[in-house]
Write a structure and sequence with these properties.
- With 239 residues, this protein is α/β, with parallel strands linked by helices.
- The protein has ten helices and seven strands.
- The chain has helices at 20-31, 37-49, 67-71, 77-88, 98-106, 118-127, 143-148, 161-164, 171-181, 225-232, and strands at 5-8, 15-17, 112-114, 131-136, 157-160, 188-192, 207-210.
- Strands 5-4-1-6-7 form a five-stranded parallel beta sheet, with helices on both faces. It has a two-stranded antiparallel ribbon with strand order 2-3.
- It starts with a strand and ends in a 7-residue tail after the last helix.
Length: 239
């Protein structure tokens, strides 16, 4: 049976966030703060190691006072901001306003780049009559990112954890995605980069396909197999 709908993860699947160095530089510029290059590089590395950039390097074991926030960060906008600004605050920065500036920066379209094949794959699915949804663990609205990069016309529904108060791998979030597209889970393929989070769709009866979480320049065509899977019926794919 052919797949009738494809659910995509956002970060690391359709889009990749900018580097931590670029993220920090943009926030410094916004705050009018200038640092020597070696100090800027040191702080960027420290923020990266802290997992402070949403969508960037995986968050390591969070400090005790942040553990619950980090575990539940995608259940609401407030938790998401508190978790990531909290992680950033484990790195002393020269201007207290930088913590909020960093968080605000990562929500801008300029901070994100679609993978090279994302637009073509979404456009091809639309042309075949396959419905497309975005199911994301996130604490903010990524729709402006999709609009700015030209992908929004090919997305039928956005199902965002913070809007539902539940985060992947909970099957309920994938169920919301199937309901939004009016499809049965058995006719649906979930595509993501996180085996634990995105793999939760299998419990609902969805087929699952994984793509590697790599920088845009190193992943030119990992989404293209989705077109074949959608044509013949989805099966689990390699990470």
């Amino acid at each position: 049976m052919a797949i009738k709908a494809v659910l995509f993860d956002f970060s690391g699947t359709l889009f990749r966030v900018e580097s931590t160095a670029s993220w920090l530089r943009a926030a410094l510029t916004a705050r009018g703060v200038a640092l020597p290059p070696d100090e800027e590089a040191r702080l960027a590395l420290a923020l990266d190691r802290a997992g402070a950039l949403p969508g960037g390097s995986p968050t390591p074991d969070a400090p005790g006072h942040l553990a619950d926030l980090v575990a539940r960060r995608d259940e609401s906008a407030e938790l998401h901001r508190a978790a990531y600004t909290g992680l950033a605050r484990t790195v002393p920065l020269p201007d207290p306003g930088l913590y909020d500036a960093l968080y605000d920066r990562h929500m801008t379209p300029e901070a994100w780049q679609p993978y090279p094949d994302a637009l073509d794959v979404l456009r091809s699915l639309r042309g075949r009559g396959v419905r497309v949804g975005v199911v994301s663990n996130i604490g903010w609205n990524p729709r402006p990112v999709f609009r700015a990069h030209g992908l929004d016309p090919y997305v039928n529904a956005y199902v965002l954890s913070y809007e539902h108060g539940v985060q992947k791998p909970d099957p309920r979030l994938f169920a919301h995605g199937c309901d939004a597209l009016a499809v049965d889970p058995a006719d649906t393929l979930m595509v993501g980069d996180d085996r634990r989070a995105d793999g939760g769709a299998a419990a609902l009866g969805c087929a699952v396909h994984f793509v590697p979480h790599l920088p845009v320049s190193r992943r030119p065509d990992a989404l293209r197999p989705v077109l074949a899977l959608a044509a013949v019926g989805g099966t689990a794919g390699p990470a």
